[in-house]
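Task 17 of the worksheet. Students: predict the tertiary structure of the chain below and write it out as structure tokens. Keep your answer in the requested format; marks are given for formatting as well as content.
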Amino acid sequence: MRIPLIAGNWKMNGSLALIEDFGNAFSRTSFLSSAIDIAVIPPFPYLANADEAFEGTPVQIGAQTLYGEASGAFTGAVSASMLKEFGVHYVLVGHSERRTLFKEDDAAILAQARAAIDEGIVPILCVGETLEERDENRFDDVVLGQLDAVMNGLSEEQRRQLVVAYEPVWAIGTGRTATPEQAQEVHASLRARLRHYDENLADNMRLLYGGSMKPANAQELLSQADIDGGLIGGASLKPDDFIAICHAAG
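Model answer:
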């Protein structure tokens, strides 16, 4: 039984006031702790405040990225061990914005995943295809290639530490949306590819959907056979909306 994970990626948004609002909202909300995992992923400056604000709630803290080296002359970079000191449980690797805006390639993403796992942090590996790749019917090749680039570089034990999030880049800011059936189709392909590595891995790895999940569509998306949770963007900045999605998963 895969426990659903709802993870809110704040991107470059947020404030101390929003951290406090979320902490207060979750302290007033009841969840069955064993029924769902919840993570909030704020920008780096707010990690310590978030860790404090969510104390006593089921919310775990995530980070938006990390560097693949343990230490050194890498100005502006943050290591896995630094994140660990701030109570970080999850970290995004390979998010589409990191791939495109910051030119992170498969080798860098693999290094980040390894660094996180070495520190006991769970990497959430993001995969997804662009509009051009979708229209050329290459989405399976692209998405499965991004998955393989990391899986092939990890040991059997390391692979078990991963969470995978599918984000349809083609549906972000294009006016097009992915239907629950389209989302399920890609998740099923990901699950099938995982079976090439290990049957138990495929059965147990959590696959998240990262395509504009919100209260209005969360239930339908989460009811798909291979969708085990969501990587939430805009709705994760609104306490009521994010908690509603969590309830839909739990």
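Marker's comment: The radius of gyration is 17 Å. The first helix runs from residue 16 to 27.
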